[in-house]
C-alpha cells in the first residue's frame, strides 16, 4: 500500500496538446480545468454533491462491495452535445480481462448533473482535446462518442480498488479522469506507463476537479487500492472516455 504521495506534474491548458502528443498524458489543476473548459470553478464544485447516493456496482467479479457508479452516454459534434438513449457499458476482453465481454447496465446520471451549466462544457472540452490529438487541422467537425462514469470507491471491505482490472487501456481515443473527492483514505496513487516502452510516472491526485488526460493509444494506466484512515473513507472520480466512430458494443 502506497503511503508517500508525489505531486501531479501539472501543465497549463495551452500545453495540453503537446503533452498528450509527446508524453501521452497531461495533468491540469482545478483552476486550469475551469479555464480549459471555459466554465466557472464554482459550477464544477456545485456538482460534487451529486456523488452522494450513487447506486452500487453489482458486477464486480472479485465479490467486492466497494464501488458505486452511474453511467450515461453522449455524442458531441463541435459545440453540440446530445445525450443518447440509456445503453449498456461494454468493453472487449482485450481491454478489460476482468469485466470485459459482458453488458453492464448501470443507473443513468441524474438531472442535477446533466443540467449543470458546466456539464456540456466539460464534454465539449474533452471532445476538442480528442480532435486536437487525432484530427488533422482544418478537418470538419466529426462526432465524438463519450461515456461518462461517476465513481465512488469506498473502504466498506477494508480496501477499495479503483482499477480492479489492473493497469489497462480502455479502447478509446482519450480518457479524462477528474478527481472529485478524497475523504479519510490513503493510497489511490495514479500510475501511467508507456504502452510500448519502459517509462512511467506516479503521482496522487488530491485537489477536487484536478484532471488527468490520457492518450489511450500510447499509455496504460491504473490507480492503486485505497485503505481507510478513518471510518467511511472514499475516493470519488468522474471518468469520461472519448471515442471516434461509435461507442464500444457487442460485435455485430
Which SSEs are present, and which pair or pack?
Blueprint: H1 16-23, E1 25-28, H2 30-37, H3 41-45, E2 67-77, E3 80-83, H4 111-114, H5 119-134, E4 144-154, E5 174-183, E6 185-187, E7 190-194, E8 200-203, E9 211-215, E10 219-223, E11 226-228, E12 234-244
Antiparallel strand pairs: 1-9, 2-3, 2-4, 4-12, 5-9, 5-12, 6-11, 7-8, 7-10
Pfam family, one: 2OG-Fe_Oxy_2
GO molecular function: dioxygenase activity
Protein name: 2OG-Fe dioxygenase family protein
Protein architecture, described:
The structure is a single chain. With 252 residues, the protein is of the alpha+beta class. The protein has five helices and twelve strands. It has a seven-stranded antiparallel beta sheet. The N and C termini lie far apart (42 Å). The model has no long low-confidence stretch (mean pLDDT 94). InterPro entries: 2OG-Fe_dioxygenase. Keywords: Dioxygenase, Oxidoreductase. This is 2OG-Fe dioxygenase family protein. Pfam families: 2OG-Fe_Oxy_2.
The gist of it:
With 252 residues, the protein is α+β, with helices and mostly antiparallel strands.
H/E element sequence: HEHHEEHHEEEEEEEEE
- Extract low-pLDDT stretches: none
SS content category: alpha+beta
The strand order across the widest sheet is 1-9-5-12-4-2-3
The proportion of residues forming helix, as a percent range, comes to: 10-25%
Q: Quick check: average pLDDT? A: 94
**What separation lies between the terminal Cα atoms?**
42 Å
**Mind describing the biggest β-sheet?**
7 strands, antiparallel
β-strand amount: 25-35%
Q: What gross morphology would you assign?
A: globular
Q: What is the number of helices?
A: 5
Number of strand elements: 12
Radius of gyration: 17 Å
GO molecular function: dioxygenase activity
Protein name: 2OG-Fe dioxygenase family protein
Organism: Curvibacter microcysteis
InterPro entries: 2OG-Fe_dioxygenase (IPR018724)
Amino acid at each position: 500500500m502506497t503511503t508517500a504521495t508525489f505531486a501531479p506534474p501539472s501543465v497549463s491548458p495551452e500545453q495540453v496538446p503537446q503533452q498528450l502528443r509527446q508524453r501521452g498524458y497531461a495533468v491540469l489543476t482545478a483552476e486550469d480545468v475551469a479555464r480549459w473548459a471555459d466554465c466557472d470553478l464554482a459550477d464544477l464544485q456545485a456538482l460534487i454533491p451529486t456523488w452522494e447516493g450513487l447506486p452500487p456496482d453489482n458486477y464486480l467479479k472479485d465479490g467486492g462491495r466497494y464501488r458505486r457508479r452511474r453511467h450515461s452516454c453522449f455524442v458531441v459534434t463541435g459545440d453540440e452535445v446530445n445525450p443518447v438513449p440509456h445503453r449498456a457499458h461494454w468493453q472487449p476482453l482485450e481491454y478489460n480481462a476482468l469485466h470485459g465481454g459482458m453488458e453492464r447496465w448501470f443507473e443513468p446520471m441524474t438531472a442535477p448533473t446533466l443540467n449543470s451549466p458546466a456539464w456540456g462544457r466539460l464534454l465539449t472540452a474533452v471532445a476538442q482535446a480528442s480532435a486536437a490529438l487525432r484530427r488533422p487541422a482544418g478537418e470538419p467537425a466529426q462526432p465524438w462518442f463519450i461515456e461518462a462514469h461517476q465513481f465512488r470507491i469506498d473502504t466498506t471491505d477494508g480496501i477499495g480498488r479503483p482499477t480492479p482490472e489492473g493497469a489497462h487501456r480502455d479502447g478509446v481515443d482519450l480518457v479524462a479522469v477528474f478527481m472529485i473527492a478524497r475523504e479519510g483514505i490513503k493510497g489511490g496513487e495514479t500510475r501511467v506507463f508507456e504502452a510500448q516502452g519502459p517509462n512511467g510516472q506516479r503521482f496522487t491526485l488530491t485537489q477536487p476537479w484536478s484532471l488527468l488526460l490520457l492518450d489511450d493509444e500510447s499509455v496504460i494506466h491504473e490507480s492503486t487500492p485505497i485503505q481507510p484512515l478513518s471510518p467511511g473513507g472514499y475516493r470519488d472520480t468522474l471518468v469520461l472516455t472519448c471515442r471516434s466512430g461509435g461507442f464500444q458494443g457487442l460485435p455485430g
